[in-house]
Design goal:
single chain; 463 residues; alpha/beta; eight-stranded parallel barrel; 12 helices
């Protein structure tokens, strides 16, 4: 069936919403600029455009499902973070959100540093030309091989995450005749208002060394005593998808208190403080993220105020936005396969992807928006659940949203704000092939991560 037009479908019982769902938007064809990338718009006949290209053409050339990333939007957001924090602070892009060699080159060109958390991410960064001294290496259980590679490569920071790692990094650095610059990651006991699995500063979790009971202070003592380490700062990360700055204020106060204690005990003022990332983005119109200049101003004021109170020189601030840069720049394009109305409940819309290309809904109960993007429609809204093609009842992409009631197989729908973590966490569940990532800019599209093939799957299966 043609993607450009469809006859009106049946009117379903769930066109009228139940009371516990929000009302449908006034215009299903409208695109909230908070949720979509900057160059996204619609043609007169309702076809979505990104970077000057229509999604119907993109689907024909690259297939579905596929991730499409607005390169101009990515660069604009990276530049906004760099400009907001200025030359007296460092912005490290958190590579775990999404990393490819093209992205590394964009970051390098826009003046950002890079945070990696595995040997694979480090290899990607180095292979694409990111200077090693602009890389920070995270992780709660780095292998000796990864640490050795990082030190030999000359990474600018290794973030120490445990007492064992303090000794491990020092030993490897000494054996290589190096002195490695390091930060100590501390858990500051802040309750971030986010999902349990992405809150990282409370004490009952795997990351960092707790401030409680003097553990962080002891970690500082050990790091300062080892010849293979140059302790340059303290690192704190309180969680992800956070909109409220109050948690950062409490975290900064507690980290600065540790810096003051280090000065008082050792006569050393550590020159750096890294407040991590985790700032939220708009997945739906209900989300209200803060702009980079607002975040920079707030964090700068918090740290300066606390340091003045403690009579400390203000350290150089680092932040680590990942989702906040790449998240809004991309959307996932799907083709509708089957439509299954459930009387009095909702309509299930099955697409040609699912939890293999976006696990976040199943993992974090994440919420997303969705839109019909291959044509316009004046049909009444119907309540839908967008689901995938995998053998799991939890294979949900968008839990509850509204789409036109004349939606039909062959239509293209798009889920925005999928730039962060969707491709990074993609899997081969049910032997699905991971989708490509296609960068679009100024009327041109190019694959930056190609679609997997069955040959790729079979190549790893040695029989």
């Amino acid at each position: 069936m043609s993607r450009s037009a469809h006859p009106a479908g049946p009117r379903h019982a769930d066109v009228l919403t139940e009371s516990h769902y929000s009302a449908p938007p006034a215009d299903l064809n409208a695109l909230d600029p908070k949720v979509w990338a900057h160059t996204v718009s619609r043609t007169d006949d309702g076809v979505l455009r990104v970077g000057g290209m229509e999604v119907t053409r993109l689907a024909e050339e690259f297939g579905t499902p596929a991730y499409f990333i607005d390169e101009a939007d990515f660069r604009d957001r990276a530049r906004a973070w760099r400009t907001a924090f200025g030359h007296d602070a460092d912005v490290f892009y958190a590579g775990k959100a999404f990393l490819s060699r093209a992205v590394v080159r964009w970051l390098h060109e826009e003046g950002l540093n890079l945070d990696v958390c595995s040997g694979g991410e480090l290899a990607t960064a180095l292979s694409a030309g990111m200077p090693a001294d602009r890389i920070a290496f995270h992780g709660n259980n780095k292998s000796e091989e990864e640490i050795t590679t990082a030190i030999v490569s000359g990474v600018g920071r290794i973030v120490l995450d445990s007492f064992q790692e303090i000794v491990r990094v020092a030993h490897i650095a000494q054996s290589l005749g190096k002195r490695q610059r390091v930060q100590i990651r501390v858990t500051v006991g802040v309750e971030a208002h986010t999902h349990e699995f992405i809150a990282t500063a409370h004490e009952d979790q795997k990351f960092g060394i707790a401030l409680a009971d003097g553990q962080a202070a002891e970690a500082v003592r050990r790091a300062l005593a080892l010849d293979g380490l140059e302790l340059v700062g303290i690192h704190s990360h309180i969680g992800s998808q956070i909109f409220d700055m109050a948690g950062f204020e409490v975290a900064a106060r507690r980290v600065v208190s540790l810096l003051a204690a280090v000065r008082d005990e050792h006569g050393v003022e550590l020159p750096e403080i890294d407040l991590g990332g985790g700032l939220g983005i708009a997945y739906t119109s209900d989300d209200d993220p803060r702009e980079p200049h607002e975040i920079a101003k707030a964090l700068g004021e918090i740290v300066t105020r606390e340091c003045e109170a403690a009579k400390l020189r203000t350290p150089r601030i680092s932040v680590e936005p990942g989702r906040a840069i790449v998240g809004p720049t991309a959307f996932t394009l799907y083709e509708v396969g089957t439509i299954k109305p459930l009387e009095g409940l909702r309509t299930y819309v099955s697409v040609d992807g699912g939890m293999s290309d976006n696990i976040r809904t199943a993992l974090y109960d994440a919420e997303y928006s969705v839109a019909l993007v291959s044509r316009t429609s004046d049909a009444e809204p119907m309540l839908v659940r967008v689901v995938g093609k995998h053998c799991e009842s939890g294979d949900i992409v968008v839990k509850d949203a509204f789409l036109p009631s004349d939606l039909a197989p062959g239509d293209l729908i798009a889920v925005p704000a999928t730039g962060a973590y969707c491709r990074s966490m993609a899997s081969n569940y049910n032997h699905a092939l991971r989708p490509p990532v296609v960068a679009v800019r100024d009327g041109e599209a190019r694959v930056i991560v190609r679609r997997e093939t069955e040959e790729d799957l079979l190549r790893l299966d040695v029989g």
